[in-house]
Amino acid sequence: MQNRAGKIFKRILLIVAVVIAALVVFYWDLVVYGVRQGYGQLNIVWNARPVEEFMADPSFPDSLKARLRLINEVRKYAIDSLGLKDTENYKTLYDQKGQEIMWVVLASEPFRLQPKEWKFPVIGSVPYKGFFNQQRAFDLKKELEAEGYDVIVRNPGGWSTLGWFTDPILSKMLNRSEGDLANLIIHEMSHATIFVKDSVDFNENLATFIGDRGAERFLIHKYGENSREYTTYMDEDKDYLKYVDHMLRGAALLDSLYHSFTGQEPVSVKKQQKEAAIQRIVNNLDTLSLALTKHPSQRFKEKLPNNAYFMNFRQYQSKQTVFAEEWHGKFHGNLRAYIHYLSEKYPFL
Q: Among 46, 112, 254, 310, fewest CB within 10 Å belongs to which?
């Protein structure tokens, strides 16, 4: 009887091994990508040092120590006053030595604001792919462009590993202004509190909303409404929101153009009309009344933005009015209550 049970157990193990091997072969690219990403993230986590070490180091600049103290205050405020999840994140610091360490690839169809998506376990489909290796990111960019996609590569100021790793402070974060830094930390802490599978637009828009509103309240709490820190942040935010609204209107204009195509037009004609529309969007940037920038169109003097650029604004900004109306209408501006409601409504992953 025992011998028979042993044989059955061995057969089960063999079947499981065959299934695992088949899955590894079938998802080989995903496995390799996951291993590389895990190694890249582990390398950062492993080489990050406790904040206390930098605070005790006499050679570490006082101005950067002040930023580390600020991050700790932001973190505490986000937990105690906003109700975001308390984790071990942002208690260590990784020195980037002035270099970028992550590259994110985003792609869109050429005549539709439709993203290229990648599927991953747990988090589901996402419209971007991150790399800790610059060459691999630009190799993917080249590959996607050869397939006809509009592609951009950007360097994120920070990211959340959703609890898989302990997220460190990145040294380049310390160059940000008080408000911008508070916004970034609260944004990423929001991801570790509320994250819905297969809903990147929802997740990023929500984290943006909580980051924006949370940073405002933190700055008022710490510095006051008449402070330089708060007024600078609000001036920057007003300019950025005007820019965002313009780009969202531009995305709607491109949508209208693409929907007008019958499918009979030559690709060359569609490309010409698309480029003309984007050029108009860029030119009209200079009609915006911005406090901090007089000629925003100059940022595109060398190269026009593409569909992936416009699509990125939708992923991060298109639902801000929806969240704001619900926040004011149901919660009367109580951000903590709103966050609690959302975390109950949308269980983490």
A: 46
Round to whole Å and give the CA distance between 74 and 72.
5
55 contacts 93 by C-beta, under 8 angstroms: no
Kindly indicate the confidence band of residue 4, based on its pLDDT and cuts at 50, 70 and 90: low
User: For residue range 275-287, what is the model confidence (pLDDT) as tens digits?
Assistant: 999 999 999 999 9
Q: What is the 3-state secondary structure (H, E, C) of 100-151?
A: CCCEEEEEECCCCCCECCEEECCCEEECCEEECCHHHHHHHHHHHHHCCCEE
- CA-to-CA separations, 8 to 15, 16, 18, 19, 20, in angstroms, rounded: 11, 12, 15, 16, 18
Q: For 254-265, how does the pLDDT look when each residue is reduced to its tens digit (9 = 90+)?
A: 999 999 999 899
- By the 8 A CB rule, do 182 and 219 touch? yes
Burial of 7 (0-12, 13-18, 19+ CB in 10 A): exposed
Answer yes or no: are the C-beta atoms of 157 and 173 closer than 8 Å.
yes
Whole-prediction pTM: 0.87
Map tokens 């600078």 to a residue.
232
Task: Give the SS3 label for residue 154.
Answer: strand
Shortest CA distance to 160 belongs to which of 77, 102, 89? 89
